[in-house]
Every structure is written in C-alpha cells, then in structure tokens.
Amino acid sequence: MPRLSWQKSSYCGEGDSCVHVAVTARSIHITESADPSGAILTTAPDDFLTLVQALKGERQMAEGRRTGIEVTVGGDDTVRIRATTAPDTTVTTDRRKWDTFVLGVRAGEFDHFFARP
Fold it and tell me: How far apart are CA 31 and CA 12, in angstroms?
C-alpha cells in the first residue's frame, strides 16, 4: 500500500486522537489514531460518498439499503465503523470523536476525497 496522507477534522484538537481519512487512486481509508487494534478500514469512494451524504442529511437512506459502511453506536458510546465488504475490519472510536468527525463532514472538509474533475 502506498504511503497514506491522513486528514482529520479541523474540529479535532491538535494532538487529540481522532478519526482520520486518506485516499488512494481506488480506495478511501478510515482509521482512528487511538484505536488499540490499529485497524484501517478500506472502502470504495462511492460508499464513502454515500456515508458523507447521509451524515450531511443530503441523502435519505432507503429502508434496508446498505451504504457499504456501517456505523453502530453502543450503549457505552463506543462507535464501530466497518465496511460491509470487509466485516472483519472494525475501526473503534468513541462518540465524542465520531461527533467531531461528523462536524468536519458537515463542513465539507472531506468532500475533495470524492470530487470528480
């Protein structure tokens, strides 16, 4: 895998662990800097676009339609992110860090990852 250039939300404080996103020619990668497993989720750009649009409220998810990326929040505010194509890879974060990522998504900070020329 080529060396990745990771980006986090500007809402994440300097030195804080956060959700990070990187792009390669054909994939989007998501990780959390404090995830003890060091998991890196790899997904298709279209799946990441669908997730971003859903987080922005631009796309209503159809009943039963999978985005390619599943996000679940546990009762202890643990957030788990996984790709439906790689269910054994799960990035784990907490609700505060996830909410910081979502703020960045809503501010358009990750739109360039799927922008078409």
Answer: 14
